[in-house]
Each structure stands twice: as C-alpha cells, then as structure tokens.
Design a protein that fits this description.
With 142 residues, the chain is mainly alpha-helical. 71% of the residues lie in helices and 0% in strands. Helix 2 packs across helix 7 and helix 2 crosses helix 8.
C-alpha cells in the first residue's frame, strides 16, 4: 500500500474527522497485513525490534480507534470482526510477547492470529473499497 495524502494534508489544513478515520483505517489495514505474515517476515518488516509488542499495539490501537471513534463509517459486523481480532491480541500469553523476536513470533498463539487477520481482511473488503474510494475522491478534488 502506498502512503495516502489528501487535499487537506497537501495544503497543511487540519484533517476532518472523516479524513482522520480513513487515514486510521489505512494504517490499521497495513498493520493487519503485517499480522498475516509468517514469523520471519514479520520480524523483517518490523525491523527486528519489539516485534510482538509493536504488532500487538499497532493493530490494537488502530482497531480501538476505528471501533470506538466519533464517526460511524463501519457496519456493526465490521466492528465486531475488528473486535474479535483485538480480543485475541489482548489475550496473548506472556510467552508470545518475549523480546526474543523469533521465539515470540513462533508462539502458537500467533498462528491463530495470522489466520484471524487473513479472515479480517476478507471481512473488511467492503470497508477497504470505501477507504480507497475516499482517497480517490480526494485526489480528484485536488
């Protein structure tokens, strides 16, 4: 995914709530994409630094913002799908969050999360299309 710049960002204007939501969604989906990767690739993409913690918090923070934010651009089923993955992330055992990155990322709990993240991407297909349409419309206005 390429970085998203909208008309407001290009003109140094403050983001609207709508634009903020769509930016949050864009980066959340990037984090979910990393969650789907195998352990070695996750470590590589995350720079071998606090891999488990970074992935956990990137997805949790973005997901929480999307589900509980002030704008309602997701359906209840889309919110529920995000919440299911967030719950799995919150329930990770300490052994899955070790500083030994490869050992942590090879914990069986991450295997279940990788599958859940792949399902989430499918479940959010319509939301992802809407996100792309938003950025397309912003580019056409600029």
């Amino acid at each position: 995914m390429e970085s998203k710049e909208t008309k407001a960002a290009a003109n140094n204007e403050p983001m609207s709530l709508e634009e903020s939501f769509y930016n949050c969604y864009f980066y959340f989906m990037k984090a979910v994409g990393v969650l789907t990767l195998d352990a070695a690739k996750q470590c590589e993409v995350m720079g071998n630094f606090s891999v488990a913690w970074e992935i956990q918090h990137d997805v949790l923070d973005g997901g929480t913002s999307l589900v509980s934010g002030p704008v309602e651009y997701l359906s209840q089923s889309e919110k529920d799908a995000i919440t299911q993955v967030a719950t799995l992330l919150k329930e990770l055992p300490d052994d899955a969050l070790l500083s030994d990155h490869m050992r942590a990322m090879n914990h069986p709990s991450w295997s279940e999360l990788r599958l859940a993240a792949a399902r989430l991407i499918e479940q959010l297909d319509d939301a992802t299309k809407r996100n792309g349409e938003f950025f397309d419309s912003q580019r056409s206005q600029g």
